[in-house]
Amino acid sequence: MSARAILLALSLLTLPFTAQAETMNSAVQQGENVMQQFAEREQQAQQDDKSKIEADTRRKQRILFLMGIALLVSIFTTVGLGVAMALYNKPVFVAHMVCAGVSATLALVHAIVAVVWFYPF
Q1: Which of 4, 78, 84, 89 could form a disulfide with 99 if both were Cys (CB 3.0 to 4.6 A apart)?
Q2: What band does 9 get if pLDDT is binned at 50, 70 and 90?
Q3: How many C-beta neighbours within 10 Å does residue 87 have?
Q4: Smallest Cα–Cα separation from 112: which of 53, 63, 76?
């Protein structure tokens, strides 16, 4: 046999192994693509969760801010009614006591909500 015939016979014998190696490389590449897609989806889900948490935190802060404004208005009204009652002898005792109750209730609710929402347990 000539060298050419031997090389041809060897190439014919190794042809199935070459095709199998190419198929295996293709399968590995497809597996890597699938894993990359899963990783991208997980990263996108984490970003979505982070943006939802940030939006929820902003909403909670806005609620506490509005409660704080209502609390300050209630306290100033209570002080004003107390001054009117004490210095100017105005008959506003009932209104003063109602505003004092509203102020105490708002202060308690504001403190409880702030601790529940933002205290790191």
Answers
A1: 78
A2: low
A3: 8
A4: 63
Are 100 and 81 within 8 A, CB to CB? no
Q: Which residues contact 118 (CB under 8 A, 6 or more apart)?
A: 60
Q: What is the three-class DSSP state of 22?
A: helix
Cα 66 to Cα 44, 59, 114: the distances in Å are: 33, 11, 12
Report yes or no: 53 and 78 within 8 Å, Cβ to Cβ: no
Distance between CA atoms of 96 and 9, rounded to whole angstroms? 108
| Rounded Cα gap, residues 97 and 72, in angstroms | 16
Q: How many other C-beta atoms can be found within 10 angstroms of the C-beta atom of residue 84?
A: 15
CA–CA distance, 103 with 109 (Å, rounded to integer): 10
In tens, the pLDDT along 49-93 reads 777 888 888 999 999 999 999 999 999 999 999 999 999 999 999
